């Protein structure tokens, strides 16, 4: 059974597809989490495990999602139903596609709020209102924004409007065109940011913290964090890569494309992360990650000079561009689902998907304000949304992709999904999905549910 032609068209070229795929992979996690993990878990010792995890866990699943999307050429629910029928498997597998669409909506709902804040901070940074702030002032500035539902909702709305416009133009005239222009700008701006941070920060200490191997600090937790980061940094388990793969010609070498995406994502993370570490270490601050790093630690580490203003503008502009690209690719599978499921035009489907995301994002906005104290088992709405997507739904989706290709699909159909190129790698790909990738995702799932910590504490008491 051959890969059918796409009724929606194709990417204009392999470099164009690569730009979009890199845009989907680059994001908040690459710049805000990798440097912290490297400084926390033994520098290049962590980097070594992280790269191995990218190759053994991330790459096989990335290629699997592209291959599935390319074969299905359909919205994900219908695509899995058709592929399951061809392999005489249960039609219940169509829920794997729908689960990916649901997780994309959930993640984009809070991702958009954070991206909106970064846009607000871009204007604050340009006005010189962020530099030379102590810890309490930096925290107060962020909480004043986050706890103001009117302003947070305005930035959230503005960001979603921009994303919707990009997606409404189509995957070639919208997403591809944006990626081809914005991705080179992101790398140029990141280089400028790193060089400027080195000039006013502590580059020697930052490079030492990242590149000096210390395996004694790695531990089992560092290995688990490396596997977790390798999976999430590539945007897997969200239906994004499957949808992007639906516009790929059968002749594209998937493994080679995957290696380029991994290389670009790693370079971006290390470059941006080293610059951030140079600033933090120069200010005698402990490296942090996530929202704390983006909206509190980074402003606190900025020097009170023109360089501080430039660094703020560069950082938040980079953050806005990468979140915009990632958000556009997150909205695409939801848009495709609405287009094909309900026979809507792309414009109406993109608007409908955006409205759904926007309404769910209100829950995140209110989680930092009026409903901050409304908690279930100690967590508010935003924390539950983040936990369910990052530690439960998305890893389960990735795990099911591994099971589906390595166990459910017959070898002949798996070869058809793989395509005509790089046939000699097909066996190694199925082996990687069956063992290292699947085992890695089981570890990620156990870690997210807190079971690994429970086992470790149980082991320590025996």
In a nutshell, what does this entry contain?
The chain is mainly α. The protein has helices at 14-25, 28-32, 34-40, 44-72, 76-86, 94-126, 135-146, 149-168, 171-200, 203-211, 219-232, 240-245, 254-282, 290-301, 306-341, 346-367, 381-408, 411-418, 426-434, 436-448, 451-461.
List the helices and strands and how they pair.
Elements: H1 14-25, H2 28-32, H3 34-40, H4 44-72, H5 76-86, H6 94-126, H7 135-146, H8 149-168, H9 171-200, H10 203-211, H11 219-232, H12 240-245, H13 254-282, H14 290-301, H15 306-341, H16 346-367, H17 381-408, H18 411-418, H19 426-434, H20 436-448, H21 451-461
Relevant terms:
462 residues; mainly alpha; 21 helices
How would you characterize the overall build of this protein?
There is one protein chain. By secondary structure, this protein is mostly helical. It has a single domain (14-461), classed as Orthogonal Bundle (Hydantoin permease), CATH 1.10.4160. Helices cover 77% and strands 0% of the residues. The protein has helices at residues 14-25, 28-32, 34-40, 44-72, 76-86, 94-126, 135-146, 149-168, 171-200, 203-211, 219-232, 240-245, 254-282, 290-301, 306-341, 346-367, 381-408, 411-418, 426-434, 436-448, 451-461. Helix 19 (426-434) packs parallel to helix 20 (436-448). The protein is globular, with a radius of gyration of 22 Å. The model has no long low-confidence stretch (mean pLDDT 91). It is a multi-pass membrane protein. It is found in: Membrane.
